[in-house]
Amino acid sequence: xxxxxxxxxxxxxxxxxxxxxxxxxxxxxxxxxxxxxxxxxxxxxxxxxxxxxxxxxxxxxxxxxxxxxxxxxxxxxxxxxxxxxxxxxxxxxxxxxxxxxxxxxxxxxxxxxxxxxxxxxxxxxxxxxxxxxxxxxxxxxxxxxxxxxxxxxxxxxxxxxxxxxxxxxxxxxxxxxxxxxxxxxxxxxxxxxxxxxxxxxxxxxxxxxxxxxxxxxxxxxxxxxxxxxxx
Length: 231
Known about the structure:
With 231 residues, the protein is α/β, with parallel strands linked by helices. 39% of the residues lie in helices and 16% in strands. The protein folds into 3 domains: 26-54 and 128-167, no CATH class; 56-125, no CATH class; 172-231, no CATH class. The radius of gyration is 21 Å and the shape is globular.
């Protein structure tokens, strides 16, 4: 065979992707898709329990959306259409909506943090008192999803990847931007942009919170109070 999916010596990623239909016969690789399915199911369950409505926004538009974003243009009959970067609508009185949908962005990047095509999870909530309401919802939502994944796939994840999936306790730690920057300074890291967190800074802060607070998640708040604060 061009690829032996059960060989102990793993092939390179490019070769495996060329023969992905064989590569996915390995239970370890199939597990990724099983977990993804459970994650989406659990997210929808939680949203439905909290009175959300699912919407499906158009993916082709006649005019460019998201001012400043680079969009893919394509011929559409006798005009030009654009692939949507993100499009949400709440003007119809839908106070809580969500959408899981493909997103396209014509933004070349050499990092895993920016991709030209990905699946976006969008959640919109109206009539909140403050950002605390959003954080409280998000942490409870993530706890529910991770708990469901652990219940259904925890043993398989531990066996295949050697990782014990931990369900986070609530509430998640909250640190101000000023506190986060002080931590990074103590760790000897200077962010690329003054008063902001860069990717390395985010990783270092996450490791610090994991070691000191025992949590894999953290909210960074009060950005405008940091030195040279971000508007």
